[in-house]
Known about the structure:
Blueprint: H1 3-10, E1 15-16, E2 18-24, E3 27-33, E4 36-40, E5 45-51, H2 55-63, E6 65-70, H3 76-82, E7 94-96, E8 99-101, E9 107-119, E10 122-134, E11 140-143, E12 146-149
Antiparallel strand pairs: 1-11, 2-3, 2-6, 4-5, 5-10, 6-9, 7-8, 9-10, 11-12
Amino acid sequence: MDDRMFRTAMGKFATGVTVIASEAEGEVHGMTANAFMSVSLDPKLVLISVGKQAKMKQVIEKSQKFTVNILSDAQQELSMIFAGQLKDRQVVFDSFEGMPVLENSLVSLACNVYNTHEAGDHILYVGEVINLSLQDGEPLTFFEGKYNLVSS
């Protein structure tokens, strides 16, 4: 099996879309990710996956904190900005628990790094959720390399 076949197979799993954000030394950095999952209820833990070469890895390593912003169907442009598909766009972050979050996300989770695990070419960060904000809306989803809007 080659890399393309593996990517195609993984694309068959529909996911929500998140933007992971963190701040270190006064610099906020965000990245689009669909590698996110809930891990535990007690304590409240989530997991994100970040490439070893990604700038986000350096920022999280310094700050030991991150947010997960679960995007609504109205936030596709934000996803594209943080995936590097749209350039030269400024994004203003709100602050929640002293961490950067995106306004109007369905959910914003403020997390402290609980544990890290090396896994191939990625680092898995387990975050302990210290607080969350939640609002109603429809999620932005991703399937077979394309954005999908969930219809009610």
